[in-house]
């Protein structure tokens, strides 16, 4: 990554970036040379600058196959550095104590997690092996011996030796677990791919690596006391002010420490899909693009429905069903029912229930009357004065003169029937 950061300063652009990592991640010399030829066609000076950094020390094609690792970056060191980043700011003794306690717990947690696993291979290696199994379906196996095969993978033809555990693509040699070509040969012999994984990635070896423990350490209070006095070593102070800040990259963002700016990145226009400018600096902004891009679909809001439809289609399906029902209903099939919406478009419920607004008799009523008075007349006007309650006939909500809370006054039997008959 550091080599790429230096090389990319002279050769900028996404095309150079992709070609650099294509060369560095090539597993065999054939792919390595093909990637170099592609870079030479782009810019011959980039090949000269690339070879100055000694590719044998950072390209996969020159790696030692006995390491069983394909790492070409310093991510392992950076990960551990981030793991102890808070402890590094402390005094030497307390820094070592924090690192010791953190590693002591890490060993126990890693061992307990692997003990829960029932597979023969470690979980991460098993996940990578599953990807190779999916690619193995595109391989055509031609047997040449008991353990020697010729595999056709698209336009390539490779040789696989199961006894020596090698493949022409060199992935199996570097990885330590079978590649897709080897998996196809293993299935051709009706065997399991997990049996051909290197011993370093087996569950038993992993548990042996974490079988040891880091013993606990007592605090300073319980340290033994000795007779002689121990003085710290002499401190030699160099000339000048000591450096406290690290050396920053010239293109590092000052507002975000550790993050690089977008300096040197090649922009891609969303309108014409060409590099060199963005949508704001599109040369033909007024002209319509030849192939207009559709906006990306937004993620549906809410939880997924049980019927399989996305949440955003709930209202669409309901509106479609309502429109279909209205279109299928004929003009003569509609029933003439009285409206149940009262004043303010509030729902008027049935007889004897509480409702708000004007009553069916045309009078403005109350709530039936807890402790109030209900007056009914034969002219069809009903009104109630008082508090809350439900009375006979149609009652509605309102405010009367009496606002007490009491039991409603009973209407004499037969009095309400005369009103209904009238």
List the helices and strands and how they pair.
Layout: H1 2-7, H2 14-24, H3 29-42, H4 44-51, H5 75-83, H6 92-116, H7 123-135, E1 139-143, E2 148-153, E3 156-161, E4 166-167, H8 171-175, H9 180-188, H10 203-209, H11 314-328, E5 373-376, E6 382-385, H12 415-421
Helix pairs in contact: 2-3, 3-4, 7-9
Summarize the structure.
The chain has 422 residues and is an alpha+beta fold.
Give your account of this protein's structure.
It comes from Spinacia oleracea. It is a single chain. Among the domains are: 2-62, no CATH class; 91-219, no CATH class; 352-422, no CATH class. The chain is built from twelve helices and six strands. With 422 residues, the protein is an alpha+beta fold. β1 and β2 (148-153) form a beta hairpin. The longest helix has 25 residues, at 92-116. The model is unreliable at 313-317, 327-332, 352-402 and 415-422 (pLDDT under 50).
For the structure shown, list the relevant keywords.
Znf_PMZ; two-stranded antiparallel ribbon; 6% strand; single chain; four-stranded antiparallel sheet; 422 residues; Znf_SWIM; disordered C terminus; alpha+beta; zinc; metal-binding
The number of distinct helices, counting runs of at least 4 residues, comes to 12
Outline: extended
**Helix vs. strand class:** alpha+beta
Low-confidence stretches: 313-317, 327-332, 352-402, 415-422
Rg over CA atoms: 41 Å
The biggest sheet amounts to: 4 strands, antiparallel
Let me know the number of strands.
6
**Mean pLDDT over all positions:** 77
């Amino acid at each position: 990554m550091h080599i790429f950061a230096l090389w990319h300063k002279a050769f900028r652009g996404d095309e150079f970036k992709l070609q650099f990592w294509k060369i560095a991640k090539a597993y065999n010399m054939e792919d390595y040379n093909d990637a170099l030829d592609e870079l030479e066609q782009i810019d011959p000076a980039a090949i000269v600058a690339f070879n100055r950094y000694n590719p044998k020390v950072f390209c996969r094609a020159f790696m030692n196959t006995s390491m069983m690792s394909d790492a070409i970056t310093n991510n392992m060191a950076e990960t551990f550095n981030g793991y102890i980043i808070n402890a590094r700011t402390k005094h030497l003794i307390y820094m070592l104590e924090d690192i010791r306690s953190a590693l002591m717990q890490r060993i126990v947690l890693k061992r307990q997690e692997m003990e829960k696993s029932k597979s023969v291979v470690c979980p991460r290696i098993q996940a990578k092996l599953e990807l190779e199994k999916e690619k193995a379906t595109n391989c055509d196996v031609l047997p040449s011996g008991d353990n020697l095969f010729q595999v056709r993978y698209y336009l390539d033809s490779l040789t696989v030796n199961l006894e020596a555990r090698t493949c022409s693509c060199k992935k199996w040699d570097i990885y330590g677990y079978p590649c897709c070509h080897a998996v196809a040969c293993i299935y051709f012999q009706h065997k399991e791919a997990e049996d051909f994984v290197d011993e370093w990635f087996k569950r038993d070896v992993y548990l042996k690596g974490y079988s040891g423990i880091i013993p606990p350490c007592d605090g300073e209070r319980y340290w033994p006391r000795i007779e002689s006095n121990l003085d710290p070593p002499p401190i030699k102070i160099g000339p000048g002010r000591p450096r406290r800040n690290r050396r920053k990259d010239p293109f590092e963002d000052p507002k975000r420490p550790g993050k690089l700016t977008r300096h040197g990145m090649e922009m891609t226009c969303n309108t014409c899909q060409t590099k060199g400018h963005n949508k704001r600096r599109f040369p033909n902004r007024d002209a319509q693009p030849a192939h207009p891009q559709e906006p990306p679909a937004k993620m549906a809001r809410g939880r997924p429905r049980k019927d399989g439809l996305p949440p955003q289609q709930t209202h669409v399906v309901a509106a479609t069903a309502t429109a279909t029902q209205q279109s299928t209903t004929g003009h003569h099939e509609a029933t003439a029912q009285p409206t149940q919406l009262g004043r303010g478009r509030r729902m008027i419920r049935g007889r004897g229930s509480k409702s708000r607004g004007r009553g069916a008799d045309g009078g403005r009523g109350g709530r039936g009357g807890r402790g109030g008075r209900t007056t009914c007349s034969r002219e069809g006007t009903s009104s109630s004065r008082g508090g809350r309650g439900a009375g006979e006939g149609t009652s509605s909500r309102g405010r009367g003169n009496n606002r007490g809370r009491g039991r409603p006054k009973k209407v004499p039997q037969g009095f309400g029937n005369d009103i209904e008959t009238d």
